[in-house]
Protein: Regulatory protein TetR
Organism: Candidatus Protofrankia datiscae
Amino acid sequence: MTEDGPRRQARGIRRIASILDAAAALFTAAGYDATTTNAIASAAKISPGSLYQFFPNKPAIAEALTARYVDDLNAIYDHALAIGPGDPAATSKMIDQLVAALVAFHVANPAAKALLSGASVAPDLAMITAPLHSAMCDRAEEIVAAIAPTLTPREQARTAEVCIHIVQALMPMILAAPAASRHEASNELKRALVGYLLTPP
């Protein structure tokens, strides 16, 4: 008796998610370059042959994982833009929720950093993760444009770049903090962004 289409499709979706979860854990622990497809298959509790039914190679796995992260980040930025800036209090609330969501994303997905770090030494990975980098940069510009619509596009791009550097500088401190005090560390990032974005040029 054969499986019906919907059941087979659901099983395939679960298997893909399992493979991506296993790959994410290994990319985080060992790095992209040191991780093999055989190791990913073993961690996902499937045979290498079963893995190749879904992904032809490791770059394809990294590409699918990157797409997952891009979707997550887009949802975060969409939510922030839906809140929308307004007076300083409203803008502060928007930044507060955005930072909280970004911290939660990085806590839940340390492999995102592993992929971006690996991209600096692996040209093929740099191309694969380009959408992830663009999601962070382009959407940051949208946030700045919403907060400071009177700035020129060039000024908005520069302001977004500074914000990204602020986040990159403080995020490691936040992630390294004990879970009980991570909120306090996150507040420092929020204060830095609010202070920078709400200070007249």
User: Anything to note?
Assistant: Residues 5-30 form the longest helix (26 residues).
